[in-house]
């Protein structure tokens, strides 16, 4: 087990419809590097995970509602995808405000697949370079981002990837990016 992220706490923002592998694998990489994480959501209890958006893939327990979370308690933010998950998050004022406030801190933010939809809604992508699942790219462009088709894109505080196929590279990149952030608190 590595210690690159020892003492760091990562916020993972997700809700029902999250693509299981896009939450589970990055979270595992973060744990493996010594971080702890809180799963934030728009409701208490558990969130329903999916596989390929269509197949039920179990649940994850919610640690805290995003409405009760404080950006100062976290060193980095992870936004997993799945089609339904970020679509619900971008319709929730508390989730959007948390993302907007988090980005304003300058701390690292990572999003994979459809995850950047919440960043679009928070109006924080203008002038930045991103990648995503192909169907999200038009939304990113319309919101003012430069969009590329690459495995992992790092632009300042943002790290993005296209799909579950990119998870090995994405997980390595977020550990490296999150390790460079100063510890909060």
The average pLDDT is 96
Tally of alpha and pi helices: 6
Low-confidence stretches: none
Shape: globular
> Separation of termini?
24 Å
**Strand residue content:** 25-35%
Q: The biggest beta sheet, please?
A: 7 strands, mixed
Question: Could you describe the 3D structure shown?
Answer:
- With 185 residues, this protein is α/β, with parallel strands linked by helices.
- It is built from six helices and twelve strands.
- The chain has helices at 20-32, 84-89, 93-105, 116-121, 137-142, 167-179, and strands at residues 9-13, 18-19, 36-41, 46-51, 55-61, 64-65, 76-79, 109-112, 129-130, 146-147, 152-155, 158-161.
- A seven-stranded mixed sheet has the order 6-3-1-7-8-12-11, with helices on both faces. A three-stranded mixed sheet has the order 2-4-5. It has a two-stranded parallel sheet with strand order 9-10.
- Helix 5 links the parallel strand 9 and strand 10 (146-147).
- Helix 1 packs across helix 6.
- 49% of the residues are buried.
- The mean pLDDT is 96.
- This is Type 1 glutamine amidotransferase domain-containing protein.
- Keywords: Glutamine amidotransferase.
- InterPro entries: C56_PfpI-like, Class_I_gatase-like, DJ-1/PfpI.
- It comes from Pseudonocardia aurantiaca.
- Residues 8-177 form the DJ-1/PfpI domain.
Give keywords.
globular, 185 residues, alpha/beta, seven-stranded mixed sheet, three-stranded mixed sheet
């Amino acid at each position: 087990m590595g210690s690159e992220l020892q003492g760091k706490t990562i916020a993972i923002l997700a809700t029902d419809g999250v693509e299981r592998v896009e939450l589970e694998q990055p979270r595992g990489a973060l744990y493996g590097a010594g971080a702890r994480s809180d799963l934030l959501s728009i409701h208490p209890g558990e969130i329903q995970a999916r596989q390929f958006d269509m197949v039920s893939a179990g649940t994850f327990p919610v640690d805290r509602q995003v409405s009760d979370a404080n950006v100062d308690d976290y060193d980095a933010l992870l936004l997993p995808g799945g089609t339904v998950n970020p679509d619900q998050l971008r319709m929730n004022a508390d989730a959007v405000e948390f993302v907007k406030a988090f980005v304003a801190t300058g701390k690292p933010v990572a999003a994979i697949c459809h995850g950047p939809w919440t960043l679009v809604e928070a109006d924080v992508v203008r002038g930045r370079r991103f990648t995503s699942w192909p169907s999200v790219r038009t939304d990113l462009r319309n919101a003012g981002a430069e969009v590329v088709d690459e495995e992992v894109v790092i632009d300042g505080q943002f790290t993005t990837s296209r799909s579950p196929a990119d998870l090995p590279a994405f997980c390595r990149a977020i550990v490296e990016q999150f390790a460079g952030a100063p510890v909060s608190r």
